[in-house]
Amino acid sequence: MNVEQEKTSQKKAQRWYKLFVYLVLILLAIVIVVPIAWVFMASVKSNAEFYGNPWTLPKHFEWSNFVSAWTTAGMGRYLGNSVFVTVVALLLLIVIALPASYVLARFRFVGQRFWNAYFMIGLFINANYIVVPIFLMLLGGDQFLQQVMGQTFFLNNLWMLALIYAATALPFTIYLLANYFRTLPASFEEAAYIDGAGYLKTFIKVMAPMARPSIITVILFNFLSFWNEYIMALTLIPGENKTLPVGLLNLSAAQKSAQNYGQLYAGLVIVMLPTLILYILVQKQLTKGMTVGGVKG
Question: What gap in Å lies between CA 102 and CA 203, rounded to an integer?
Fold first, then answer.
């Protein structure tokens, strides 16, 4: 009887624990979903509807808010800038980080420990903390070019912003990819060498395709980071070539003074929608890739 009572009490405890976990998850889901749903609902409201109950459903869908945000407020141009910066930064990051992580993981050479430690240290440096030194360096470069050539290059340049995004993301990317390469068996490389393939061909034809799950994770993770980045874009792009997060700040300031809240929330939806769609589509691959190769070092 004592054993049966203990089993019964354990089952009850497990049931109460599962109930508690489900309640917490439901509360978290509500906290996350309700603000997002409210923004989507507010984006199709007329201005008059904002002065009543903010939780009422819109009487008519004001799709013109999106048209105004896209054209009048310039969100379409800001979206194009964000797409350009994100794509260029991802291409630069993969081209540099993929071979570097493979070399660090699979080869032994003089200075290997130093470079491993160097990139590990970079994991603890938040890019937002060094934005002022980066800005001063670029400003000094522009002042020099202004004196020599009569023009500037480094500030207000989307190419430079993409390059800095890629550079600041290198430590984490190399760390993740190198750990994944370390988990792959050496027999694949040995078979390629026996067939006459060199180091470069082995890397391109054999090892890089095998690292596809980790590469996809790196691309998705850094896409979310680059797309939502605000501080560097605000500091390094003082002109009109703004990205979406910075453009949204200008839209927010303008529409608050004009009391055009529908256009403001339509701009918020334009910023959020690509990220939400991408995360919904690839959330399984993202969480799976973050755990693969992250234990063995």
Answer: 8
